[in-house]
Each structure stands twice: as C-alpha cells, then as structure tokens.
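User: Can you model how DL6 sits in this protein?
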Amino acid sequence: AWLKNQASGFKGKDQFEKEVVRHVETTLARSMFNCDETAAYAATSLAFRDRLVIEWNRTQQRQTFADSKRVYYLSLEFLMGRALDNAMLNIGEKEVAKSGLSELGFRVEDIIQQEHDAALGNGGLGRLAACFLDSLASLNFPAWGYGLRYRYGIFKQEIIDGYQVEVPDYWLDFNPWEFPRHDVTVDIQFYGNVNKTTDDSGKVTAHWEGGETVRAVAYDVPIPGYATPSTNNLRLWSSQAASGEFDFQKFNSGDYESSVGDQQRAETISAVLYPNDNLDRGKELRLKQQYFWVAASLYDIVRRFKKSKRPWREFPDQVAIQLNDTHPTLAIVELQRILIDLEGLDWDDAWNIVQQTFSYTNHTVLPEALEKWSVGLVQHLLPRHLQIIYDINLFFLQMVERNFPKDREMLSRVSIIEESQPKMVRMAYLAIVGSHKVNGVAELHSDLIRTTIFKDFVTIFGPDKFVNVTNGITPRRWLHQANPGLSSLIASKAGDPEHYLKDLTLLNKIELSVNDPAFRKAWAEVKLANKQRLADYIKSTTGIVVSPKALFDVQVKRIHEYKRQQMNIFGVIFRYLKLKSMSPEERKKVLPRVSIFGGKAAPGYWMAKQIIHLINSVGSVVNNDPDIGDALKVIFLEDYNVSKAEIIIPASDISEHISTAGTEASGTSNMKFVLNGGLIIGTCDGANIEITREIGEENIFLFGNLAEDVDDLRHKNTYGDHKIDPSLDKVFNVIQSGTFGNAQDFQGMVSAVREHGDFYLVSDDFHSYLETQELVDKSYADQELWITKCITSVARMGFFSSDRCINEYAEEIWNVEPLQPDTNN
Ligand code: DL6
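Assistant: Here's the modeled complex, given as structure tokens:
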C-alpha cells in the first residue's frame, strides 16, 4: 500500500491490531473478551481515524502555508454513505485491516456493515456532492465542503402492508468520523430591524439590529483522497442556543418547560433534513436553515481570508464558492452585506468581488423545484438582506433597461422579484445575477436551461456565462469499493487500480480483451457472484427467493412521477398478463426476469406513495401466483440508500432510466450501472445521451419521444384527441378490476393518464417501452453478444469519472490549481 511509506500509514497488520486492541481497551473501556462486532467496528474506525487525522492536519497546514486559491463547495446535502470502507481503500490499507481483523476473530465485511450510513441528502444532488468531495481530495485541490449537520438525515423507509412508513433516522449515536470544534462558533442573527446612519462625509451605513441569535458550532469530517495524502475538510454546522445554556431565571421560578425553550428552538434549525427531492416547499424553517448555514460558512471563509491581510479586491483570487443549486443563494447577499455594511466597501467594488467569487450549478428545470421565497418572509427573517436583494435587482434592471430599451416586457420576465400575489424572490435569478458562471449538469440539460428557463439571461449576459459540466461519479466508491470482483478483473488488463482509478480513461484497455474467452468467462462469473450476493440479500430481507440466472431488471432512485416508476410497473403488469395467457410449456421457454425497485417517496407526495403501494401489491400477487413461478418476480427493496446501492448496482443486468424526455437533468445512477457492467434501458434524457455517445448506440436500449416533442404532445393530450395506448388500456382495466387489491387505491395513477392529460407522457411512450423491453429479452438470450456489449460499455465509460468533472470546474469555472502533497515526509 502506498501509504506504508508515510508516517501516517500502519506499519503492518501487527500495528493495526495493537491499535484496535488499544481502542477497545482504553477508548471504549472494554476487554477483548467481550468485544462484539459493534465494538470492533468502533475500534477499527478509531484506528483508521487516527491515520486520517495526521494527513488531514498536514494537508490543512500545507494549504495555509501555500495560501493559494481554495474552492468552497456549499451544499445543503452531502449523501456520504459509509466512511470506514472508503477510508480503508482510499488510504490503501484494506488488506492490512482484513488480515488484522481476521486474527482478532472478525470478518472485515461484517465490521464494515456495522456502520450507519451518513444520509444527509435526498438523492442525486447530495450524492454528487459526496463524489465531488472524493475527487477534490483525490486530485489534491485545496477545497472545503460546507453543509449542515442534521441530527436526523433522510428518514428510514419501512414498508408495512405495502405502504411506505417513515421512521426517523437518528444517525449520530456513535459517529467516529466527526470532530466537534467547540472553539469554532459563529453567532447568527435573525429577525430584528435595520437602522441607517450617515457619517460626516455623507456616507450612509445600514445597521442590522435586534432580533434573535443562534450559535453555529462547527463539526469537521476528514475527506481522504484516493492514493494521496491529501485529506480535505467537510465542515458541517450544528445549531445551538447562543447562550449555550437554558434560562436559569425561568428554571428557578419553576417554569421548567419554557426554560429550555430557547435552546430547543435553536437546535431545531439543524435538526432535520427536508425530505424532498426536486420539490420546493417554501417553509420558514428551511429558509432559516439556509441562512444559518451560509452565514456561518461565509463568516468562516472571510475569517480565513482576512488572516492573509490581502486587500479585498484579491478575494476572488483566493476564494471560489460553488453554489450547489439555489439553496445557498443567500450567500451572495450575505457577502455583499459583509462587504458594504461591515467592511465599508462601495457597492460597485463589493458587487464586483461577489460576482467574481460565486458560480451556480442548476440541477433541474422542473418548475416545482425552482426555489422562490415570499418577500414577506424574507423581510421578516432577514430584513437587511431583503433591502440588498431589492438593490441588486434595481441595478440589474437598470442595466437591462439600458441595454434592451425596446423590450419593456423583459424587465418583468427577468426581475428577481416576481410581481405576483404575494411577491416572491426568484432564487435562481438571484444566483445567476450574482455569479460569473452558471452551469447545467449534462449537455441536454445545459442546452435546455439556455433555451428555456434562462433564455433571457443568455441574451443579457451573453452565452459564455452559461456552460455545461456533465456530472460524474467517483470510481473509487462506485467500482472499486462496490464491486471488488470487477475491479480486480479490470486491473488484470488495465493495470494497477492506483492508475486506472485515477485516470478512468485507462478502462479502454479492457476493450482489447473483449474476445478473450478467459476474460469473458471471468466477467460472467463476477456478474453471477454479484447477482448471487443480491439474491441472498433479497432473501434475507423479503423472504423471496430469486434465481441469479434470471435477468435482473433494476430501477432504484427517488420515487417521482417524472422518473416514471409507474410506467415500469405498468410494463410489469403487461408482462404478467402475457405470461398468464401462455400455456405452461410456452411459459417454460420464457426468459425469467426479476423486476427490482427501490426508492423513497417524499412523505407528502401522495402519488409517489401510491406508486410504491402498487409495486408492492403487484409483487404480492405475482410472487405468489403458482402459474408464474420463477418466470417473473417483483421485488421492492426497503430503505434504498448508498450502502444498499453498493450491493444492488453491481448485480444489475438491465437498469431503467426512463424519465420523460427533458425532465431528468442528468441522472448519475445511469453512469454507476454501466460502469458496473450492466446495460441500460432509457429515454433520450439527461446523461443517457452522452452515455450513448460514449459507449455506442448499439450498447444501449433507447426508446420514447424526444424532449423537443414533449410540449406538443402535452398540448395534444390536454386539448386534442388523447388516445390511450391499447396495451396500457388493458393494464388499466386489470388494475381497475381489483386484481391487485382495491382499485380505488390506484385510481389517481390511472386517471392521471386517462383523464388528466398524461403530463409525463406514459401512454405516449408505452408502446415503444414495451417493444424495447422485448428487445432486451431477445438480446439477453444471446449471452455472448450481451457480454460483448457489457465489456465494451465499461471500457468506454472513462468520461464519467467525477475527476474529469472536477477538472472541468477547476479550469473553466473556479480557476484553481491542485496543490501537490510532499510524499516524502
Ligand atoms: O445533478 C445531480 C442530480 C441530477 O443527476 C438529477 O438528474 C437531478 O434531478 C438532481 N436535481 C435535484 C434538484 N433538486 N433540487 N433542488 O436534486 O440533481
């Protein structure tokens, strides 16, 4: 292992064992005789944490000393998953841990399983942030992540009688990966009012006074790079009462409940992650979370900058702040406030600095996900910020008016303040105006934002401000960690993992072996073993036995109408009806299929919950139908999360990425599935398009209408002749006959298509979906050709490493350079 030469590496398994034993006996105060798997996990993590901390401190010192530009990635979500396995692999000490633990009587796999996922995110957006942290550290960029330390991450999903039930996810019981920094605190102000004073020179200064103060306390999480000593920092803020204590006066007078009231109110801010994906709910507490987090982060960033004693105009040479969606947009306003109100800069100088510092990533074109806050709420919570937003808007609109005097309507179209009832602040517009670059996350998505939702801004600012950075995934977690079998097979052709996992384009070397019988055989064996692992997991969690020889068809992601899990389950019902209509002899010839679903619905999203209920209801009918046997099984895997994805993704033969064209900004699980040797069925949407470009259209199953036709189809469905696809009609009739339980339970899903305009074009795409699924069956029957497709696809996936993606951000948006570690000390 490369770290062996570092002072921070273990000197062999004996030293590792000694440290585990030391932690069991001293830190945990237990004896090795009663050391169970939980304690072994704790001690192993602490032993690894000790290693990380050494490099972490060195990295921070190196960065401070170099005083070069840093990147700050502001994200309300970091869906990190488990840390131990990742730490072992990134610092190259998993083998040491494996043999050391085995001597102590444990299996490394069992120990890894003890860890609770860090699930501080909803889905793609949060997982992308986690992949980016891995790449930033692996590529040696001086970078910090800033987020919130939610006490409750995304809820745990239980399926009871086929329905989703949400259970709180308290993940902080024992978390060895965070370091509370009780000395790093920031007091954050809310509410109050603004007074203005004028000095002798006539300069007016605003003072934000009064209101309520909540304390932000930093918790730091080390982020180890892969095969490098660079270890970056993720700083998560936790809220507590500014006084730190409860109210003794109230307590002494016997008012026990309200004596802790302030404390509880303050702690509520970072208590819980909002469980919505691609949906904006406009709740006051959410706005409070956003300001609390950006204000604390900016205070920290500014404090660090000020230590360098540089003039303010150099701020953008030292600091690049990336806004992960619009959630941190208030940071733009906060920096402007700091510069003009607290540091005394002129508006224009300050605004110049702000614009050069920030850049904004858009992750969605769905109107329901585009954030807006009511002016009244912002005024109440952040009175000074609202004034600044109005000034930003005024100067912006004056510029627009000067440059486009003939287009009066443009002013209301692009105004940051929407003149609706009530008036709203359009956060995406504020983010665009306050940033020097705006990017989409896949080519189609970036084109769509340029030509639809942000079209006017392209006219105003010019096309260069709007760029594309296609998303990526870290191959360390999503290949090496999740699929060790495939990773070592690839290594036999592509060379040392330390090389190809850092330059994923080296995967192309395996294409030379696509016809090598031994390689192909080994490839098939790895897939079968991964399918067996998933089959075992399915059996242990659902009791259902599935054959690993069947075709595994997987759709795992948040449940959303635009992602069209409903179309998938309608297709499954169609398949079931077809099987039922066959003779037993015919049925025996059919290629068996296991349809696997997983994903959470937002608790308030009624339709998404109906979809989960239908999947489970279909499963209980199909799986118990003696006519069907192994020919079809329908599985819903409870509580889909990062660590489950690591088991599910390597086992897939075909996975479904079937959003209505133009709705899925990118998707990243599509990349993970192909990288793990599965093929995909998908629409011409998001990154599917670039995956097709890279791997070749002969290796992907594309179907459905194109994004450019969606508006016309929707119009036709609402105002014209909306004929339901006959196969879908048949499926609906069976649902309505009560075959899968009370038809009333699924009426909403059926009438959304039949009576309410079929907004997601399920009927319009259904025929081509079924045809393409048939093609999948036929292709899978030819295993030789199938394996060729899989190997070829993996070989061509190098583009989708998040390292490529981070290098693009660094060069085109942030203008930062990596800081090479000194590997000799
Ligand atoms: O960019 C990461 C991820 C994309 O892969 C998904 O396609 C997209 O749906 C998701 N967007 C969001 C938007 N949520 N908000 N706000 O999660 O981003």
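A couple of observations from the model: Residues 67-82+117-468 form a domain with the Rossmann fold fold (CATH 3.40.50.2000). The mean pLDDT is 96.
User: Helpful, thanks.
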